[in-house]
Amino acid sequence: MELKPIPDNTLPVADLRAQKGKQEQNPEQIRKVARDFEAMFVAMMLKSMRDTVGKDTLTGGGKGEETFRSLLDQEYANAAVQGGGIGLAKTIERELSRAYGAPAPAKGVHDAD
To answer: Helix, strand, coil shares of the chain as percentages rounded to 5?
Structure first.
């Protein structure tokens, strides 16, 4: 099995790379990218979880449920990240701050390396 790299334009950090040469990155912008990535990761975990659970026969499912389930999962993921998340955003924020020259956040995950 051959592993292929993920294209840069599919990741939320593409915005930071495009602006790297223009100016020092804004800490709020780095925080937003980190939270967006964590929300995307949590939504993918929820989708994987739903794939392992049987279908609900009580409500019947249907095309409407299939269509809107991913939107509901995305909202669950956004709410989880706004409520503190799983800690991934803090680590990503710290690493992006190192990589793009912005000051590192004062509070974060200690000794996560």
So the answer is: 60, 0, 40
